[in-house]
Model the fold of this input.
Amino acid sequence: MKLIKTIAISATMIFSSAAFAHSGLIESSPAKNEMLQGSPQALVLTFSSPVRLVKLTLKDGAGDDIKFGFKPNMQSSKKFSLDLPQLSPSSYSVNWMIMGEDAHKMKGKFGFMVHEVMAKATEHDHASHSHD
Done:
């Protein structure tokens, strides 16, 4: 009888862990390792199942925290979108922590880069250069 209980408890733990293991980040904007021309307007995280986003930080290349108004929310969702302030050219690191319906926590991180917006050449610039 003791063996049956042990097997049942083990199976329950394996299946609940396996179910949570599928609750991961499946998409983000900016995307992992994306190189952007100019500052993104928002940070969007999409997970494979409803989770609670309990921690989210954004750091620049110097390791300084970027404040953008994240507050932990106990509402479960698959998609979270947060407005961002104007970001200067730098590399950025996003660190997140989620909590599944079974209270297990999972964390991850990814980075992206913001470059200066390149000025486009105007027709006037092209017209002033003749090729004789």
